[in-house]
């Protein structure tokens, strides 16, 4: 789908209309998640079969959380998206929040200090890896993506607090609006990040099968 919409990477995602851009972002994310999940399950099989990593299959946890949790951006990052580096990213933020700035454990201030620190470190990691591959590129889209996330989380917390205290918005019916919010933020902010990944061949998009239901659907759509 990404190949079709971007004409094998020659067209920027920003040049697409909102629907095609959103579908391209979803397609790229789904492919990335699938590859990560396959690698993780292979590692689990090897680890449990040999006893090198785990002894009991019951101790294994899914790589990704439930997508039903994505009715807030915070739940997406905290419960749904993979947690491979969560501990490594959390520890510096916890130290900064509790030991340096003396923020109370569990407070909103402590939470967002950790959030800003985690996305800063993750952004530096992704930016550094990209610059090592293509030193001449600016990768502004990558920077924007990781800069947007903690600010969107901060805005989300204040809006949720206001909505619950002022209007009592605690019904699950509000989750629909939450899903739209999460989808919109991630789709729009990730466009530049994904666009650079495709443009500079950091992540190559390729069709697994020469013909599929998706390709037939796109032949009718495009």
UniProtKB/TrEMBL annotation:
Molecular function GO labels: O-acyltransferase activity
The keyword Transmembrane appears for this protein: yes
Pfam families: MBOAT_2 (PF13813)
Pathway: Secondary metabolite biosynthesis
A Gene Ontology biological process term: lipid metabolic process
InterPro entries: Wax_synthase, Wax_synthase_dom
Every Wax synthase domain range: 61-147
Chief subcellular location: membrane
GO cellular component assignments: membrane
UniProt KW keywords: Membrane, Transferase, Transmembrane, Transmembrane helix
Subcellular location: Membrane
Source species, domain of life: Eukaryota
Membrane topology, record value: Multi-pass membrane protein
Family the UniProt entry places it in: Belongs to the wax synthase family.
UniProt-recorded name of the protein: Wax synthase domain-containing protein
Species name: Aplosporella prunicola CBS 121167
């Amino acid at each position: 789908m990404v190949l079709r919409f971007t004409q094998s990477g020659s067209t920027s995602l920003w040049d697409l209309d909102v629907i095609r851009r959103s579908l391209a972002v979803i397609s790229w994310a789904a492919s990335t998640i699938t590859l990560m999940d396959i690698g993780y399950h292979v590692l689990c099989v090897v680890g449990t079969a040999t006893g090198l990593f785990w002894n009991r299959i019951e101790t294994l946890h899914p790589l990704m959380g439930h997508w039903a949790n994505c009715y807030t951006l915070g739940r997406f990052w905290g419960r749904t998206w993979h947690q491979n580096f969560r501990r490594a990213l959390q520890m510096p933020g916890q130290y900064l929040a509790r030991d340096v700035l003396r923020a109370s454990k569990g407070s909103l201030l402590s939470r967002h200090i950790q959030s800003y620190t985690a996305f800063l470190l993750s952004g530096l990691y992704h930016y550094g890896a990209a610059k090592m591959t293509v030193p001449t590129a600016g990768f502004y889209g990558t920077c924007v993506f990781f800069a947007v996330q903690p600010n969107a989380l901060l805005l989300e917390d204040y809006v949720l607090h206001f909505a619950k205290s002022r209007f009592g918005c605690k019904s699950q019916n509000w989750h629909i609006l939450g899903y739209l919010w999460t989808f919109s933020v991630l789709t729009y902010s990730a466009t530049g990040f994904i666009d650079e990944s495709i443009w500079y061949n950091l992540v190559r998009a390729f069709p697994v099968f020469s013909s599929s239901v998706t390709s037939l659907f796109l032949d009718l759509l495009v």
